[in-house]
Write a structure and sequence with these properties.
Elements: H1 2-12, H2 23-49, H3 55-84, H4 87-90, H5 100-109, H6 118-125, E1 133-134, E2 137-138, H7 148-164, H8 166-177, H9 182-210
């Protein structure tokens, strides 16, 4: 009975279609995960280093940091090489703020990019403001749910885009001029950035299909 009810619900309701990751995305995700591990290790070791003043220990820990830096550089090169083989994703780096790390996160954690509408992709990531209301009471709209890893990457990308990407910088300034709080304006930039990237990815795939 449960299966029949779920099947009927899926038939009647509009749901976001699940897009499984391609083999190259699953491989890239492993490289990306290992890179995050090393970055966290480097951060922790750097903090621990401040607690030791003995030259011998400082030299030992500095050597460990050099090793971690080298491993991260190797992974950065391997990740960039894998992305170069995916032309439709390469089109995203034309926007200021979209680094290799951001693009890797999108490729691994958001395979639906370019396959959904701007509104749907924003809701999927969790940057679409949701209404809070009950009866006659209305609260502030806020973002909730979605994919936290993608939001974190977009947050860092939006900070850079607000400084160096003219279209998004002007958009951010216009929201601030209207009295929007900085955090609200930045989330709006994240959402607009995602919508633009979604459209670019869709157009790139359409162009490749017609070539």
């Amino acid at each position: 009975i449960d299966a029949m009810v779920l099947a009927q619900m899926a038939h009647l309701l509009k749901h976001t279609r699940y897009v499984p990751a391609a083999p190259w995305q699953r491989k890239l995700a492993k490289f990306s995960l290992r890179r995050r591990h090393l970055v966290q290790m480097r951060s922790s070791e750097t903090q621990r280093m401040r607690a030791f003043s003995e030259p011998a220990l400082q030299a030992m820990m500095s050597s460990q940091l050099d090793y971690l830096d080298e491993q991260i550089r190797v992974l950065n090169k391997a990740i960039a090489e894998q992305l170069r083989n995916q032309p439709s994703w390469n089109s995203l780096v034309e926007m200021k703020g979209v680094s290799t790390v951001v693009m890797t996160t999108l490729a691994c954690e958001l395979p639906e990019l370019g396959k959904l509408s701007g509104k749907a992709i924003s809701a999927l990531v969790g940057v679409a403001p949701m209404n809070r209301e009950s009866g006659s009471w209305q609260g502030h709209r806020r973002i909730t749910g979605g994919r936290a890893v993608v939001r974190q990457a977009l947050y860092m990308a939006a900070l850079s885009a607000c400084r160096y990407e003219p279209q998004l910088r002007n958009f951010f300034k216009s929201l601030k001029a209207k009295g929007k709080p900085g955090k609200v304006a930045l989330v709006a930039v994240m959402r607009k950035m995602l919508v633009i990237l979604n459209a670019r990815k869709r157009d790139a795939e359409a162009m490749m299909a017609s070539a």
